[in-house]
Design brief:
- The chain has one helix and ten strands; from the N terminus they run βββββββββαβ.
- The protein starts with 5 loop residues before the first strand and ends with a strand.
- By secondary structure, it is mainly beta.
- The protein has a single domain, classed as Metal Binding Protein, Guanine Nucleotide Exchange Factor, Chain A.
- The strands form two sheets. A seven-stranded antiparallel β-sheet has the order 6-7-8-9-4-3-10, with helices on one face. A three-stranded antiparallel β-sheet has the order 1-2-5, with no helix packed on it.
């Protein structure tokens, strides 16, 4: 992970936290029109609670990372695309310079059912 901007994501019960470093690739919507934020998968690191993290295959593709205790879903990891999809939109995503979302990443995500848009200013 780099020493750039970072954030922390924690489940409701606090058993699992993830560190997110850098800037998002882009924003979009999932298959049911919920807002999501796309991050490079290598920008995600487990901060605490590795033993409480449940990683299981998701019907639409990828692996869902969730807390075993409270069952909150933290992200969906798509290894083949190298992208992590976090529910919701990072409030200050447009304040960071994001790496360019490659057309390969975009095609992969759209094939998985996401609607993608780039972060402004990227």
């Amino acid at each position: 992970m780099s020493n750039g901007p970072y954030g922390q994501i924690a489940c409701d019960c606090g058993a699992v936290s993830l560190l997110v470093c850098g800037a998002p690739l882009g924003l979009g919507l999932d298959a049911v029109d919920e807002p999501v934020t796309f991050w490079p998968l290598d920008a995600i690191q487990i901060g605490q609670g590795a033993d409480e993290l449940d990683v299981s295959p998701q019907a639409g593709g990828g692996d869902c990372w969730a807390c075993r205790r409270c069952r909150e879903r933290l992200l969906c990891a798509h290894e083949e695309a190298g992208v992590a999809v976090l529910t919701g939109q990072e409030g200050d995503a447009s304040d960071h310079h994001a790496p360019a979302m490659t057309s390969s990443w975009q095609r992969s995500l759209e094939a998985l059912g996401y609607r993608v848009r780039s972060v402004p200013g990227a």
